[in-house]
Specification:
- By secondary structure, the protein is an alpha/beta fold.
- 50% of the residues lie in helices and 15% in strands.
- The chain has 10 helices and 6 strands.
- Strands 2-1-3-4-5-6 form a 6-stranded parallel beta sheet, with helices on both faces.
- Helix 2 packs parallel to helix 3, helix 7 packs across helix 9 and helix 8 packs across helix 9.
- The N and C termini lie far apart (51 Å).
């Protein structure tokens, strides 16, 4: 029986995955966590073989969590769960030890295939993710210079420019006519995409790679 641990900062997602996997005789969910911090504290002491890991979490994000878990327990097989489709983010997760990447709109069959595949020592990318990675490889030669990071949206660039100008979150919200929470969501997404731990790291990377330019 494959022992699975689920990590996601939305309890509804965890409960949905538990319900999805409960009827299966060869898979058992042995634990859950709602943050990267909880996962890092709990998983190394369990008998978990496969971890279903959300990427977009507050606090320690999925990329950092994956890196720490693999260092603490190298035999873990980690499957990233995300709505992000950027090829660079997919490669970032795989480069930090994940053995699978599945989009969150996947059905039971896809999730089960991923768990079984990585448990057997194989790599697993769902069909959409696989196409994204293949297209990225095929198009690599067409670009003279590629950023090592996933692309950031126009709105994220606008938020980033204002962060560089030392605007507060509320001031950014007021200036762009968006909510405080939306600004924080953009900031959190950029932290994940750029692999930064905090706003200072975000600023350093933005300046170093000129990410606010056109």
């Amino acid at each position: 029986m494959i022992q699975v641990f689920i990590v996601d900062d939305h309890k509804m997602v965890i409960e949905g995955l538990e319900l999805m996997l409960a009827p299966l005789s060869n898979i058992k969910v042995i634990g859950t966590a709602t943050s990267g911090e909880q996962a890092i504290a709990q998983i190394p002491g369990t008998t978990a073989e496969v971890v279903l890991l959300d990427i977009n979490m507050q606090g320690i994000n999925g990329v950092e969590t994956c890196k720490v878990l693999k260092k603490a327990k190298p035999e873990l097989k980690i499957v990233a769960l995300s709505m992000h489709k950027e090829s660079s983010l997919i490669k970032l997760m795989l480069g930090n030890g994940a053995k699978g990447y599945v989009l969150k709109n996947a059905g039971q069959e896809e999730v089960v295939k991923a768990i079984e595949a990585v448990s057997n020592g194989k790599m697993y990318l769902d069909e959409t993710v696989n196409d994204i990675v293949l297209n990225s490889v095929a198009n690599r030669g067409e670009k003279k210079k590629q950023s090592p990071f996933p692309s950031i949206s126009r709105r994220e660039k606008e938020v980033l420019q204002l962060i560089l100008q030392e605007y507060t979150t509320q001031e950014i919200a007021d200036k762009l006519f968006i909510s405080f929470g939306t600004v924080e969501t953009h900031r959190r997404n950029m932290l994940i995409k750029l692999g930064a731990k905090n706003t200072a790291g975000l600023v350093r990377i933005a300046i170093e790679y000129g990410l606010t330019g056109e």
